[in-house]
Amino acid sequence: MPHYAYLNGRYVSHDRACVHIEDRGFQFADGVYEVIACIDGRLADERGHIDRMRRSLKELKMPMPMKRENFHDAIVRLLKKNRLRNASVYIQVTRGVYKRDFPFPPKGVKQTVVITARPFDFKNNEKVKVGIKVVTVPDLRWKRRDIKTTGLIAQVLAKQAAVVKGAYEAWLVDERGFVTEGSSSNAWIVTKKGSIVTRKATSDILRGVTRTALQKVCKDLGLKIEERAFTVGEAQQAQECFTSSAVALIMPVVSVDGKKIGGGKPGPVAQKLYASYMDYVMKGKQVSWKA
């Protein structure tokens, strides 16, 4: 089956999709990105992701390279060309190609827009059934974590540290010993009293789009949410822990730094939230094409 990518208005063979060596995304990580889940033909929280991309671009003094509806049309056409109804959709926008120099390039330099799609089986993710292991590492990132930039080297190192220790995810810990978020997810715990806790969305963390949707799901289910920081020790003593992200969705955590959570099995709250979030997505508008 052919595999296509979107690159600056064109649909090209994925293995031939290239950008210039002086693209500022390549040389400075001067760009932003988003990842949207397409689940059974539905783009999960598409509006929230495009809204966040607009905000990230604004914070970096970049305009939106095209209108919201143009992004939608480009994504749908790419999925159709790749014959995908279950996929992770990656969008990246950079400041464009210009000679390597720190100041912004002059007006008129065209931004680079890339969209790719890869198949992902959301309904048969074995990790959801058995849970994941998490390790903690120091949070070494810059202070504007609320901007979803392509500068991800600290997250790369954290994720690799998790892999080396046989874990799936790394939770980042600040100077005071509080968990900020995961290397590619938001972090949650369920206390012994049943409260669902996640860190407040400030510049310390990324305001996850799935996190925001999950808050609505919790409210609809009548579940109590506390937005506050929690320590590694509190996480290890919690009734449950889980993560949320655009592609992994809700992932139960069964151990933190080797300490078993909930007896080492996915807990009922995380499982219920996963099912409820999937119902929430299925109620969204289905994109009109057949794979």
Give a verbal description of the structure.
A hairpin with a 2-residue loop joins strand 3 and strand 4. This protein is globular. The strands form two sheets. Strands 7, 8, 9, 10, 11, 12, 13, 14 and 15 form a nine-stranded mixed beta sheet that branches. A six-stranded antiparallel beta sheet has the order 2-1-6-5-3-4. The longest helix has 15 residues, at 268-282. By secondary structure, the chain is α+β, with helices and mostly antiparallel strands. The chain folds into two domains: 4-124, 2-Layer Sandwich (D-amino Acid Aminotransferase, Chain A, domain 1), CATH 3.30.470.10; 126-281, D-amino Acid Aminotransferase, Chain A, domain 2 (Alpha-Beta Barrel), CATH 3.20.10.10. It has helices at residues 24-28, 46-59, 68-81, 126-130, 153-164, 209-221, 232-236, 268-282, and strands at 4-7, 10-13, 31-39, 42-43, 87-94, 112-119, 132-138, 169-173, 179-182, 186-190, 196-198, 225-227, 240-245, 249-256, 259-260.
